[in-house]
Design a protein that fits this description.
mainly alpha; 4-stranded antiparallel sheet; 56% helix
């Protein structure tokens, strides 16, 4: 395969902070957390705050190339801010925003630069010189399969692709779309830090502000973290009734299945266990079930984790089952569950 040799400029490092070259450049500066939060880096911190805020509000991060140095350093600073929130949804939203931004930037790049970015992720991507096939790129079969296994759109299936000598033909938009998934995974991995540093006060305070902004944008019920061990004794009556019907293999309406699945996912039941519960049904289809459950869990598709409908919606659809006294004081099944856990 043809290999492209490209030297990334400082503006490239600013546009693509996930590049190894960008990481290596930042390392040469030998900066500490305290430095990035210090008065000498106020413009960097302000830009990092903008990145996170735009990710929460619009699922983008934008690019400011007026000062490449500020832009480069704003990425690791934004990572620190997101880490400081310790919020799963903010982390996912930020990773998705960086991926979408990268996709937009890469679409306007020359072929050589796209190939260089792909090489950064270890891809074997080359330019297509066959003018009879209207695709700009060739991607190795191995790299293609690795990056499309989770994509459900029929166009990504190998049977719908042109395959020659172990390579798959791709358009520019298809290549940047697949590369954006690499970016998303890269950012999510950087946000998996378990042993967090002692953050300076300005980072902690800004992280709290970002959490409040996320609650306003996404909603308190979805943002609040629940214990990751499922406690059946805390299920509201509607969920308990659905769960008993579900586990006995009896029919559940579409609304009932969605309500129970989204509830179980949000109270910490692993997706694999939820999928196993579906085996009680005679019409069980593992491929379809896996896709639906993982989509609800935010692991596929839009990467948005869905929550159950509110109580009034469940009442409208006949899912509400014998409300008790606590039910009358809350408006959402997850609020009931949280209240029961808090009450012990």
């Amino acid at each position: 395969m043809q290999r492209a040799v490209v030297r990334f400029t400082k503006n490239d490092l600013a546009k693509y902070p996930f590049l190894k070259e960008t990481t290596d450049y930042v390392k040469t500066l030998d900066l500490k957390v305290e430095d990035l939060a210090g008065p000498g880096f106020s413009s960097v911190f302000e830009r990092a705050e903008d990145r996170v805020e735009e990710a929460i509000l619009y699922t983008v991060t934008g690019t400011r190339l007026r000062n490449a140095e500020v832009e480069i350093l704003s990425f690791p600073t934004a990572i620190l801010l997101v880490l400081a929130t310790e919020d799963r949804l903010i982390k996912k939203r930020y990773a998705l925003a960086e991926a979408k931004q990268a996709n937009e930037e890469m679409r306007g790049e020359p072929k050589e630069k796209i190939m260089a970015i792909a090489k950064n992720f270890g891809w074997n991507l080359a330019q297509n010189n066959n003018v009879q096939i209207g695709c700009e790129f060739l991607l190795s079969f191995i790299d293609y399969v690795k990056n499309t296994t989770h994509l459900k759109d029929g166009k990504w299936k190998l049977v719908n692709r042109i395959l020659t000598s172990g390579n798959v033909y791709l358009t520019r938009n298809e290549v940047t779309r697949l590369l954006s998934e690499e970016v998303r995974r890269h950012v999510e991995k950087r946000l998996e830090v378990k042993d967090l540093p002692a953050f300076p006060a300005i980072i902690r305070e800004t992280a709290e502000k970002m959490k409040k902004l996320a609650i306003e944008k996404i909603g308190k019920t979805e943002m609040e973290t629940l214990p990751q061990v499922t406690v059946q004794a805390a299920f509201p009556p509607c969920i308990e009734a659905l769960y008993q019907t579900f586990t006995s293999g009896r029919h559940l309406s579409h609304v009932g299945r969605f309500t129970l699945t989204s509830f179980l996912i949000n109270v910490g039941m692993p997706t694999e266990k939820v999928i196993e519960l579906y085996r009680n049904f005679s019409d069980f289809n593992e491929r379809m079930t896996r896709y639906q459950v993982e989509h609800i869990a935010g692991e596929k598709g839009s990467r948005t984790r869905y929550i159950p409908p509110k109580c009034d919606t469940l009442q409208t659809h006949g899912v509400c089952a014998g409300p008790n006294e606590l039910c009358r004081r809350i408006s959402h099944p997850l609020a009931y569950y949280r209240r029961k856990l808090t009450a012990g």
